[in-house]
């Protein structure tokens, strides 16, 4: 068993966070919404900029570090449902100075955003999950020296609505990362920038999490899917197999049906045993009070995968205000330097840090 030390950093109700060195002192800081928290103790809170508050949400469903303008300072990529716009915030390099926000593209309502270096260039591309619009991604334009220019190129890779849910999974094992959507997967071609990717409508994942994770659960050599229901009860895995005719099959298995609103998932070796654990939790009031299980207690959990057994361990659980959920974009990284990954959990219930103290003796 792992032991965690919980600390409330702020009662601010932003649902996304990130960890990076904001002020260039070599120490990782925590960013969440309109503020950043200075490491290593995260007690000093600094203003970034105003973030639109609307309908009990904030228009900030991702906080991701990227040096967009090539000045050597990490900026923030963000976007959300209400603003319908992908944006970046420029790090001014001076504590106390407000960050300017720039629009990248009005792409439609953004559920949240994930990032992956699709072409191996060393800089991740931006993949917003836009349920009502086709799947697209954005590539930072860099100059001859490799520095960001503040501009992006957009690539649309699907037709029709993307649906709720997205993940990066090499479905066919050919070494190229594919994109999983709620109702199927997009096969990456040899040139990911060359137009539409081939869509395979092989499953229906419901109100799928962002991300959908790929992991060979059973050791079969084929990549399976791990999916949370972001707006309903249920955490599942889908086992990849083959029918007699050679076609791909997907068998649905339950992991945990006791909770709802599993919106964000991570695979991380939390206990340093060489095996990945599944980390997730409830996004508190994901649709305010409109989802199944909205009034249930909240929590964060990790699961030992163990070939599909998915042994559950509770990190935190209880009523909001005493326990923490996982928000729409939580972060896992060793902040204390003890070698064990810690968890930063934002949400409408506040911003929490769970310091991973390592294994207990039991």
UniProtKB/TrEMBL annotation:
Protein name: VCBS repeat-containing protein
InterPro entries assigned to the protein according to its UniProt record, in alphabetical order: Integrin_alpha_N (IPR028994)
